[in-house]
Design a protein that fits this description.
Elements: H1 17-40, H2 47-70, H3 86-110, E1 114-118, H4 125-154, H5 159-172, H6 182-202, H7 206-222, E2 237-241, H8 245-248, H9 258-282
Helix pairs in contact: 1-2, 1-4, 1-5, 2-4, 3-7, 3-9, 4-5, 4-7, 5-6, 6-7, 6-9
């Protein structure tokens, strides 16, 4: 008689989308912090290399492993499909990011809340390339976590719930940043909405990656404004925010101010209108 063979398969844990996204976020934050603290206790000269490798590589490794355990999707499904559109989408996202930061500065200057000073203190080209590359990788990690995985996973429970979940977790992730307060976290949640809407409009991760990168680069390196509580290292200008902190964001940066948040809300409305029009055209 022919011998029967039994096929074994490992069933993946069944978790509904939003709890799965929150589990992903919670585990990532806990493990990332534990590993970071352990590395910081090392007193050897090579610890800087280990920390950099951890900051650069852990988000991708963790996301890939989590997908293999809990999801029936591929890594490419997190917004990396159609790589031929990457450069165009990244460039358009970068243009949006630059325009947003420029509009912050124009509004601040119009109301007398900013002084613009010329600095022109760019480092040597190798250092510029290194800092740009590190900034790009760190932005990629945040987009992978919040728009790539959390937004995409939660979308199975509805469009707006996924936007809300990805944006709130994005804000919470920065709660320990220097000079963070409730208004700053709310501002980052609104920024998360903007990035999520950009992801949905372009249907890839490249556009929010470009927006996020150019936002950070323009705010810190070009105009020398604080970036989410971090002290700026400007290369071209130095902008002194002189208005009330609750309006300009103060030492936290424009993300934590009422005026920038209003500009972001206008941007979200514009992207929503464009996204809705695009969906109607597809139908």
């Amino acid at each position: 008689m022919p011998r029967r063979t039994r096929e074994w398969s490992i069933r993946k844990p069944s978790i509904t989308p939003i709890p799965k996204a929150l589990l992903f976020f919670g585990l990532f934050m806990i493990l990332f912090r534990i590993i970071s603290n352990l590395l910081l206790k090392i007193k050897e000269p090579y610890v800087d290399i280990l920390l950099l490798s951890h900051y650069i590589g852990f988000p991708t490794v963790f996301t890939y492993a989590f997908i293999k355990i809990f999801n029936e999707i591929n890594f490419d499904d997190l917004g990396f499909k159609r790589p031929e559109e990457a450069l165009k989408s990244f460039s358009l996202g970068a243009l949006i990011g630059f325009c947003i930061i420029l509009s912050f500065l124009v509004v601040f200057y119009f109301f007398g809340f900013a002084k613009v000073l010329v600095k022109m203190a760019a480092p040597e080209p190798p250092t510029i390339l290194q800092e740009v590359l590190i900034m790009l990788i760190l932005v990629y990690n945040e987009e992978l976590i919040f728009r790539g995985y959390i937004l995409n996973t939660a979308r199975k429970s509805g469009l707006w719930p996924s936007i809300v979940v990805s944006s709130i977790t994005f804000g919470i992730a920065h709660i320990n940043n220097p000079n963070a307060n409730l208004l700053a976290i709310l501002g980052l949640i609104v920024a998360g909405f903007l990035l999520a809407m950009t992801f949905l409009m372009f249907d890839n991760i490249w556009a929010p990656l470009g927006l996020h990168f150019m936002w950070n680069f323009t705010e810190e390196k070009v105009f020398g404004m604080p970036l989410s509580g971090l002290s700026p290292e400007s290369w071209i200008f130095r902008v002194e925010l002189t208005g009330p902190n609750w309006i300009t964001g103060g030492d936290f940066g424009p993300e934590g101010g009422v005026l920038p948040v209003m500009i972001e809300l206008i941007g979200i409305l514009i992207i929503y209108i464009l996204l809705r029009r695009s969906i109607l055209q597809r139908e």
